[in-house]
């Protein structure tokens, strides 16, 4: 009895804590910051408490309200979902501490930020825990709407136009996804992922649903050539919001693609995996070239996100042969990218606060003036480039290994080339940070919290490369990559 | 053709019409309307294809989904409309600028 209650609160806490926090922060506006920080700390605690029981008892399933799968909404947590929850909670805590300092002097933005940010965390956590494709649609919409509203917080034409474009794209993606859900429900009479996995068969309704849902999620994940909305939205938002969008929000829809691919569509997809991989390869090359030619730091980091998202899609064709290794590599890459990219956007926020601009050529010896921030940028760069010993290195190494064991040289070349170009755009920024610029500017002080948070996240991205066995062990609990469906056989 | 299939095909038609309008029209209000047309199309597919039991009573689950979907659509439309007003206030125009104009 007692353990049942514990399991129940353990699974629902990551959803309820930020939701309650969001409502309280909205009602008690003057206390928004302490309420927000408390909710996020409690959220991290509840996720960490979840890990030991996961290692001990394996994946957990909870029928909310006791209704059960065909009618009710089930929550499900395996290693993959808990790893994503941990990523969200850790990066979320960093962004929250940063935001508390960043918005300190603008009470109106503080009051707008916290409820939306906590709602975004609610939506992400619910997305990682839902086992029901219709409930996932609802979480996707909450995620999209709160992300759009957060983008618009700073006001100004750039941010508003970026947010509007983001909203249109996000809604289009959700509607395509929902049409896919409608077709799957009609064909198989259930929206539960586990039941669908048993019943799904290779037939036109499934293919249509797969196309619609994948296209919608690819649009939301900003896979090339559907990435056009990402750089303006991610670059024009406030620093903590940019970090949240690039580090966490795109991972939500990517997580769903992986989940569906592994559990539903993998066996009936045919050549679609190769198509996804080719788009990913194009994203790596195009995103890196665009990042190289940007003159503004935030746009450079945003295009780097386009390139790194491309890496995530290289796993789809590689997983056909080497399965677990490619999926683990790509998820490791996703987790360490979240830490590193959040750190980079927070550093960009520090530089913007410090110099009043983010033109790369005018960085003007910031290494001497903001040493901690530049160290954070360099460390995050180590992981983005994929140099050892960093989380990015482990992820790219696993991907490279699965490409090489299959003898697929094309994919291997893309992986290496993307790393070289990433090194070029990271060093471009670091180089300008050392040199004196022609237009020196009035410097503004940057709160110490904002520097230390960025540094801590970047250091964590590098540390991910030193503790490999625990995260990989966590990812394999519940064997999310071994589940194969039997329905597709005949 | 059964009525159910007819409704579903109509729904698909609305979805495609909405998608076309979304791409073709530059005015933001028309884009927002286009989304609502697409959404109605999806709801029609859901309701039209709802399975029927032996006694002819339709399956209630898709109807619950449609109601949830309508709530989401209302919230999204409200956000889109207020954002549109803010964009119009900031840029003086009710459409998105081209990438090349900036």
From TrEMBL, chain A:
The keyword Acyltransferase is assigned to this record: no
Record keywords: Cell membrane, Membrane, Transmembrane, Transmembrane helix
Domain of life: Bacteria
Nucleotidyltransferase found in the keyword field: no
GO CC terms: plasma membrane
GO function terms (MF aspect): NADH dehydrogenase (ubiquinone) activity
GO biological process: ATP synthesis coupled electron transport
Location in the cell: Cell membrane; Membrane
Topology of the protein relative to the lipid bilayer: Multi-pass membrane protein
InterPro entries cross-referenced by the UniProt entry: CPA3_Na-H_Antiporter_D, NADH_UbQ_OxRdtase, ND/Mrp_TM
Main location as per UniProt: membrane
Transmembrane segment boundaries: 6-28, 35-55, 75-100, 112-130, 136-154, 166-187, 207-230, 237-262, 268-287, 299-320, 326-349, 370-389, 409-431, 452-472
NADH:quinone oxidoreductase/Mrp antiporter transmembrane domain sequence ranges: 130-420
Homology family: Belongs to the CPA3 antiporters (TC 2.A.63) subunit D family.
Name of this chain's protein: Multisubunit sodium/proton antiporter MrpD subunit
The organism of origin for this protein: Thiocapsa rosea
Lineage of the organism: Bacteria, Pseudomonadati, Pseudomonadota, Gammaproteobacteria, Chromatiales
Automatic annotation (TrEMBL), chain B:
Gene Ontology CC terms, in alphabetical order: plasma membrane
InterPro entries assigned to the protein according to its UniProt record, in alphabetical order: CPA3_antiporter_subunitC (IPR050601), NUOK/Mnh_C1-like (IPR039428)
Kinase listed as a keyword: no
Gene3D superfamilies: 1.10.287.3510
Keyword entries, A-Z: Cell membrane, Membrane, Transmembrane, Transmembrane helix
TM annotation in the entry: 6-25, 32-51, 63-85
Organism: Thiocapsa rosea
Subcellular location: Cell membrane
Name of this chain's protein: Multisubunit sodium/proton antiporter MrpC subunit
Protein family according to the UniProt entry: Belongs to the CPA3 antiporters (TC 2.A.63) subunit C family.
Ranges in a coiled coil: none
Topology within the bilayer: Multi-pass membrane protein
